[in-house]
Every structure is written in C-alpha cells, then in structure tokens.
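Summary: Need help interpreting a holo structure output

Steps to reproduce:
1. Submit the protein chain below together with the SMILES for NAP.
2. Request a joint structure prediction with the ligand placed.
3. Inspect the structure token block that comes back.

Expected: a single structure record containing both the chain and the bound molecule.
Actual: see attached output.

Input attached:
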Amino acid sequence: MILRRVHPAGAAEEVALDTDGAGARDRLLEWYAPGEGESIRLNLVTTLDGRVTGDDGTSGSLTAGADRMILGVIREHADVILVGASTVRAESYRLPRATPLAIVTSSGDLTGHGFEPREGAPEVLVLAPESATDAVRRSLGGIRHRILPLPDRGEPATAPEIVGALRAHGAGRIVCEGGPGLAGLLLAEGLVDDVCLTTVPRLGGSGIRLLADDGPAVSRWEPRQLLLDDEGVHYARWARRAD
Ligand SMILES: NC(=O)c1ccc[n+]([C@@H]2O[C@H](COP(=O)([O-])OP(=O)(O)OC[C@H]3O[C@@H](n4cnc5c(N)ncnc54)[C@H](OP(=O)(O)O)[C@@H]3O)[C@@H](O)[C@H]2O)c1
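--- attached output ---
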C-alpha cells in the first residue's frame, strides 16, 4: 500500500511510502515521533461523520488500510496505552504486544476482555478505587496485573488523578486509545497535546459518536501531518494550539 504524506509537503520520494517496502516502519516511526518530554496523545479512528464504531458496536469494523501498522507505530512511541473499561468490554480488547496497557474503571468489571496470558507480557495496569479491586481480580483471572489506586469517593476520578497515577508509575508518554468518554474527559481538561485521527471513507450507520453532543468546549488545533493511502483512508496528526 502506498501512503502519501500530503502535509508537511516535501520531495516526492520523501512523501510516498510503500508500507510493504524496506524501512517503511522506521520512516513511520519518524513521522509519528512525539515531542520531547511528557505527552498525552489520543489515537482514534472515525468515519467522515464522526462515528467511532461500525454497526457491530466496535471500532474493529472501521479499521482499514494502514491503520493497524500506524497503531503499532504510535504504541511503540508510548510508555503506556490508556483505555476506558467500556472499550475493553465492548471490543474484547487484546493485550498489546510490548507496550503496557492501562485501564481506568470505577466498577472494576473487565468482563469480556480478550486478554490471554503470555510469557513476558507487561503486567496490565488497572486504575481503580479500592472498592473495585475484588471485581478487577475476578474479571482478570490469571492475567498478571497491578492496581494503581484511584480515590474512592463513589464518583469517577478526575482526569488529573488518572494522569497523575500513570505519571507516578513512571509513564511519561501516554497514548489514549479511547473510548470517546475517556478521550472527552482528557480533552475537557486541556490535557491532550496531540491527536492522531484516522478517518475512513464511510458515512452513516448507527455507530456511536467520537464526541458527545455535550462534550468538551471547542478547542483549537493545528495540522502537523496528513497522510492519505490508496484506499482513501486518511491519517491526521493535530497539535494543540498554544493560544
Ligand atoms: N473508533 C475508535 O477509535 C474507538 C476507540 C475506543 C473505543 N471505541 C468504541 O467506543 C465505545 C466505548 O467508549 P465509551 O466512551 O462508551 O467508554 P470508554 O471511555 O471506553 O469507557 C468508559 C468507562 O471507563 C471507566 N472510566 C472512564 N472514565 C473514568 C473515570 N474518570 N474514573 C473512573 N472510571 C472511568 C468507567 O468504567 P466502569 O464502567 O467499569 O466503571 C466507564 O464506564 C465502544 O463501543 C468501543 O468500541 C472506539
């Protein structure tokens, strides 16, 4: 598959990338390198009209083109992958190959996950209040995990509390892979530096929306990069505007 870098523009041989060619992954690693220091990145896939699930209720049926390869590259740049518990349940989420997975939950119920015990896999980090730890243990069974405690106030943790727990664990570069609820929470607090958004050329359906109607207030972003593949999928990087 040929991926074209439309923005920023460069010499023709620099902007067309054969994803099956030698060195393709290294080039993508360069294109997706985060800035220096700690960062929070969102990585999501959407339709043209902003839906994040196909009719089967998962993002798996939206993923197309080079999305999986780019997902792997973005994961490689991260210290931790953060997801909401509904995503784990709805998508039968599988363990990433090398980057640790962190799940945020109030209930502790991770039933429906698709994790399989694997020799040498990093432990799963579960951000949960003390009252949810039994449910976490029950639903994770033999999967190696560590609880990162959240305040037990009987209400959801704040975004700074979630990020603070990951940072205290040593995770500087965080990539959040959704779902919309968790992504919206991080955006509402102005904590997101970089958005990687894959847009598939589909419109309509009954899938859920990227951001709720009463989601975060309007914020301004500037394009850092735009790739387009020969299936019409585009892959954008947006950076938060400083003003
Ligand atoms: N297209 C994409 O890129 C993409 C990516 C990811 C997911 N998805 C789709 O999005 C859907 C799920 O998204 P969603 O927005 O409904 O849910 P979500 O953000 O994945 O998860 C929400 C859940 O996470 C936990 N949580 C979130 N914020 C929390 C907080 N502040 N404190 C404590 N726990 C917190 C809670 O878990 P408990 O209920 O356990 O307390 C909450 O119910 C699925 O259909 C999935 O397929 C699409």
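--- end attachment ---

Reviewer comment: The helical segments are 12-15, 24-31, 67-76, 85-91, 133-140, 159-168, 180-188. The mean pLDDT is 95.
Status: needs-info
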